[in-house]
From TrEMBL:
Transmembrane segments: 6-26
Name of the protein this chain belongs to: Periplasmic heavy metal sensor
Protein keywords: Membrane, Transmembrane, Transmembrane helix
InterPro entries noted in UniProt: Metal_resist
Length: 164
């Protein structure tokens, strides 16, 4: 009888330890890949620091880059907002009781156009940055962009669900 109580207490302690360790594990992995919050202050851009450091920009180039990024990020903010609103309308309509195929096609087409605009503006922005560079910096910038494009291409090919 005394052994049975001891076994039950030990089992309860082990279960509590197991649940605690799982909770700590989930908590530590939940934020591992979380991005830092967006900064409202447009003076601080991670990409600006990266490029300025890698390309050894002069003060004048850094000021020009800062201006390019401010205007680009504002344009992109507006496009992303429009895209998000159209996407929300599409999902609401597609998941709602009154699905309309023509309306779905129209909204999807609008999302595609907005996505294309965002891609085009992004690459034109990179081209503007490229124009800021001197001959040596252009070579390094090209190398950075090719590596980033290769990384992004690889990310898109990854499966959505990890295979077991």
């Amino acid at each position: 009888m005394k052994n049975d109580k001891l076994i039950i207490v030990a089992l309860i302690v082990l279960i509590l330890l197991n649940l605690t360790s799982w909770g700590l594990f989930w908590k530590s992995t939940a934020n591992r890949h979380a991005l830092p919050p967006l900064q409202e202050d447009l003076d601080v851009f991670r990409s600006q620091r990266l490029l300025s450091g890698k390309l050894n920009f002069s003060n004048e180039q850094e000021r020009a880059l800062k201006q390019l990024q401010k205007s680009h990020f504002q344009e992109m903010k507006d496009l992303r907002k429009r895209h998000r609103l159209v996407r929300q309308a599409f999902v609401k309509m597609a998941m709602g009781p009154s699905y309309n195929s023509e309306m779905a096609d129209s909204l999807f087409q609008e999302m595609t156009v907005l996505n294309g605009e965002m891609q085009k503006k992004t690459w034109l922005h990179f081209r503007d940055i490229y124009q800021l560079c001197d001959k040596g910096q252009k070579k390094e910038f090209r190398s950075i962009m090719l590596r980033l494009n290769k990384l992004n291409s690889r990310k898109r090919q990854m499966p959505l669900v990890k295979p077991h």
